[in-house]
Amino acid sequence: MNPAGIPLALSYDDVLLVPRRSGLGSRADVDVSTRLTRGLRLATPVISANMDTVTESEMAIAMARAGGIGIVHRFLSVEGQVGEVARVKRAEALVIHDPHTVAPDAPLVDALALMRRHGVTSLVVAGADGRLAGLLTRRDVMLRDDATQQVRELMTPRERLVTGTPETTSDEATRLLRDHRVQKLPLVDAGDRVAGLITLRDLLQRAERPQATKDALGRLAVGAAIGVRGDFIERARALQEAGADVLVLDIAHGHAEHAVRAIGEVREALGDGTGIIAGNVATAEGARDLAEAGADAVKVGVGPGSVCTTRVVAGVGVPQLTAVMECAEACEPYDVPVIADGGIRAGGDVAKAIAAGADSVMIGNLLAGTPESPGVVVSRNGSKVKVFRGMASAAAAEARRAAEGLEETEFTPVVAEGVEAVVPLRDAVGSVLHGLVGGLRSGMSYSDARSIPEFHRNARFVRITPGGLRESYPHDVSY
Ligand code: XMP
């Protein structure tokens, strides 16, 4: 092999965006909305990584509320992962279609246990025939000390309730709740059977967060990861049933034959309703093969992640800027969006990734330290930190083994391609995303780009030297 024939590949630190004449008066005029997949739009082009120290329901709820989306990791039992997706779906909706109910003759102690178990502040009271009997709220159960007292004696009875029907619109619901000064609106069908519940809290959240990523039923959108072997089809079906909006085929070498084949197998099992994101790849051929196989988005990144050691351990990878550029070009004829996954350290990297052709970015590290990520805050050398680990790290493999209850002897040693580390405790997800998107908006305004497609067309890069990189960071100052 002739070394002179080896192509050069670049990463975020090797380039800068060149400022150009811009007609943009304000960064607020920049529209950062994008496509996650061929079928789903995001107001904020950021996705939380499907890692067990990054995305479960709490993170996914925060991401969707901020206009992005979270991908629930797959290192849970099928029921566990479905439970996380279901929790996101219940977090807010115009209509809760199957509200938690209690029987009128149930004792107070049972009602309190139900409220606690489901984390709700009210229960719809329904008879065995499903007909609405009343509503039990926190106010009704507060300071009651007779645990055997029946729900019917404490609830607001049917005849005093304000109700709607399954056809009630959000405007009508707002008017009813306001005029009657109540917080819950049970919905009943023609036979007076419980058909849903609208809450003031959900209506207020809708009004406050118009950018939130929602499904057609007004519920927060969420993605979930699956593998490409074993129970993956069964898992995919269960996740679709639970309402997952997109599935991510999560495999380190997405250009492996069986990974490409899995796209068709999942598509056949799920039909067209649920988006399929496939990855990870880092070459034009890889991206093209996934798009050809029917992926609705292609995830790009082999080794750029902050806790990845694939490049060290296996000597494999493509620096991320080049990988994104080549994959985006390859996906364009298929009209398939590209997700730049891994290696994002600041708003400038988000801007460079999107300028290079990505439609959105996936982030692990910067979100792992937020209060919404799984795991607890610990103290390390006087600072508050959270654990963050690569999904191919020995620590993650061991946690999976413990969760699956396998015997020590059944543990197949792996060559770890990731590490376990800690990251500083950060502000809430909403504020981290606000900072990153602020950087992106600024980057776009320097390129005279009002939208992401315009940014793709307008952006120009220069390659820089180590001297240029040094100049880019604060220098000749002390703190
Ligand atoms: P950041 O840089 O945002 O990257 O932390 C998150 C992405 O890293 C990938 N990932 C891994 N890659 N070994 C790898 O080679 C690992 O153990 C590993 N765990 C996560 C993944 O693509 C994630 O989205």
Short description:
The protein is 35% helix and 18% strand.
Describe the structure.
Helix 8 (232-242) crosses helix 9 (257-270) and helix 10 runs parallel beside helix 12 (320-331). This protein is of the alpha/beta class. The mean pLDDT is 93. It starts with 14 loop residues before the first strand and ends in a 7-residue tail after the last helix. The longest helix has 18 residues, at 429-446. The chain folds into two domains: 9-92 and 220-472, Aldolase class I (TIM Barrel, Alpha-Beta Barrel), CATH 3.20.20; 101-208, CBS-domain (Roll), CATH 3.10.580.10. The chain is built from 18 helices and 21 strands. It is elongated and about 85 Å long. The chain is 35% helix and 18% strand. It has helices at residues 57-65, 78-91, 108-118, 138-141, 151-154, 170-179, 200-208, 232-242, 257-270, 284-292, 310-313, 320-331, 347-355, 365-368, 394-404, 429-446, 452-458, 466-472; strands at 15-17, 34-35, 41-42, 46-48, 69-72, 101-102, 122-126, 132-137, 156-157, 184-188, 194-199, 223-226, 246-250, 275-281, 297-300, 338-341, 360-363, 378-380, 383-389, 420-424, 461-463. The strands form six sheets. An eight-stranded parallel barrel has the order 4-5-12-13-14-15-16-17, surrounded by seven helices. A four-stranded mixed β-sheet has the order 6-7-8-9. Helix 9 (257-270) links the parallel strand 13 (246-250) and strand 14 (275-281). The structure holds xanthosine-5'-monophosphate (XMP). Residues 49, 51, 280, 301, 303, 305-308, 310, 341-344, 362-365, 390-393, 417-418 line the site of xanthosine-5'-monophosphate.
